[in-house]
Amino acid sequence: METVIDSHNISKVYEETAIPVHAVSEIHLHLERGEFTALVGPSGSGKTTLLNLIGGLDRPTTGYVEIGGVNITKLKDNQLIDFRLNNIGFIFQSYNLIPVLTASENIEFIMLLQGRSKSERETRVHELLRQVGIEDKHDVRPAQLSGGQQQRVAVARALASKPRFMLADEPTANLDSVAAGNLLDIMAKLNREENMTFIFSTHDARVIDRARRVITLQDGRVISDERYAQK
Amino acid sequence: MIIRLIWRNVWRNKRRTLITVMSVLFAVLIAISMKSLQAGVFGHLIKNVVSFHSGYIQIHKKNYWDEQTLDNSFVSTPALVRTIEKQPGILAAVPRIESFVLASSGEVTLGALCVGTEGEAEDVVTHLRANLISGSYLDKRTNHTLLSQGLAEKLHLHVGDTLILLGQGYQGAQAAGKFAVGGIVKFGSPALNSSLIFLPLTAAQEFLSAENILTAFALGLNESASLETIQTSLRAGLGSEFEVMSWKDMMPDIATHIKADGTFYNIMIGILYFIISFGIFGTVLMMMNERRYELGMLLAIGMKRRLIAFTLLGETVCTSILGAIAGAGVSFPIVWYLQSHPIRFGGEVARVYSDFGFEPVIPTLLDAGIFIDQALVVLLIALLLGIYPLTRAGRLSPITSMRQ
Lengths: 231, 404
Fold this sequence. Notes:
The structure holds 2 protein chains of 2 kinds.
Chain A: E1 3-14, E2 21-32, E3 36-40, H1 47-54, E4 62-67, E5 70-71, H2 77-87, E6 88-91, H3 103-114, H4 118-131, H5 147-160, E7 165-169, H6 177-194, E8 197-201, H7 205-210, E9 213-218, E10 221-227
Parallel strand pairs in A: 3-8, 3-9, 6-7, 7-8
Antiparallel strand pairs in A: 1-2, 1-4, 4-5, 9-10
Helix pairs in contact in A: 3-4, 3-5, 4-5, 5-6
Chain B: H1 2-10, H2 14-54, E1 57-61, E2 74-75, H3 78-85, E3 90-105, E4 108-117, H4 119-126, E5 132-135, E6 145-148, H5 149-154, E7 162-168, E8 174-185, H6 190-193, E9 196-200, H7 201-207, E10 213-214, E11 216-221, H8 227-238, E12 242-246, H9 247-250, H10 252-290, H11 292-301, H12 305-340, E13 343-344, H13 347-355, E14 361-362, H14 368-385, H15 387-395, H16 398-403
Parallel strand pairs in B: 4-9, 6-8
Antiparallel strand pairs in B: 1-11, 1-12, 2-10, 3-4, 3-7, 3-11, 5-8, 6-9, 7-8, 13-14
Helix pairs in contact in B: 1-12, 2-10, 2-12, 2-14, 10-14, 12-14, 12-15
């Protein structure tokens, strides 16, 4: 199996306050291509911090993270931005689409940053909109889309860069059950058919129920790491 | 798409953008109107002053201006005339010989400046014919003089009377002559009106025993011509034997007044733009704070800092330039109208202006340079204000921004 993420004994300590906060402590994590993993745990357990460290949005205080064999902890700021652009797809809780761009422009934007040709961008935008089932909304701005539709655009945007893996921070938190179910169906299908690796931080039982690996965090430490058969 | 993104971001908060655009518009409108008015008034003043007597440029033998005697004169050669005439931008060059003389009539004798000139060229450069109030204009076929009105009154002379002139001619020769008064000219300047006597050039040269000798060439320029360029070019062409003086060199008081007024204008406009800059800066600040989360997200998904900075700078520049274009657009018809329909004085003020030889109007100058200058000032302000988002983009952290 191809290793996608390898974290080596990573810890994150926030020292902005009088008492240092150990958000994540000595975590070893090994994720392989095609995994559908949920990071779970109570609020403040370190899920989002771990996701940020894996995603190269933050740097660990100690330890390091390897993605596809590259030690991203050593990358310079600009190299890290490039690395994120070409290797990691982000899906945020509050969708975070660019409000002044249409659905298709939001998806195309990532590929523009990658310097892809116009024809390639257009073909891929069309394909991604079809994959997430909102071809008819291609010319609509985020404010005119429902939460579920916006999150689908966010998934399509994350996929547009052809990343090694997708990081989703509470992706269903703002969605009703139907929209959340539909979104999970899309992500599960991408995982199944394209072997796309997904890592979620979540409280949502529906997400946990679909995950084939559930890593539970508490006080910044992994307290359990369980794998399940195909769901 | 980046340009599209910038443009749409500009209109994200329409009301705020419109307020910012309007503030720039009014600043540009005021700046252009004031500058056009000032340039128009000074242009008019210069035109009036140079047409009194000096012309825009004068060519003398070196050191003549400091010691205005016939000993500092020069011989008019065809080569010299050719050098002057081939210079582009010159409307006309009038050859003159000038000397201080005693003018006498009956019991009265007064000091005066005798100016020998070519009538037709003089009229092109200083519009002398327009000052004629009685008699006839200079005619090179006669020896008739044109006498300034104030001097004629003091000498109790009228058209047809005889004027006696006494003075020192070229190289110490004695100059004495009797001339018929052919015409009377009136000048706005009291100093000129009480001291000038015009003679046809050859008559004056003969009177002063200075055949083919000149003390000056006075030049009239085309309206579009650049004074400094022509002055520099003539200096180079004529060499060190001659001095080429502009009206600014000959009338430094007026040049200083114009410069001082220009400085005052610049200070006023500087204050205005300074105030407007705070308005634009407020918009930039709000724009940055409102979108902190979004900027963090853009950084997270892989948008480089320099591209984020370019986008933010683009939005500031775009808003400011919109205001500048709108300001120039509103200013243009106003300045154009005031140029073709200048504000006219009436009543006593108009009479005083006319008495001094000035047309009683406040004109404006429609000059593309004024519009371009203001647009560049606004662009410069926008670029300076753009430094703030640039530095903020440089310090942006996706985690911190998205957490806040």
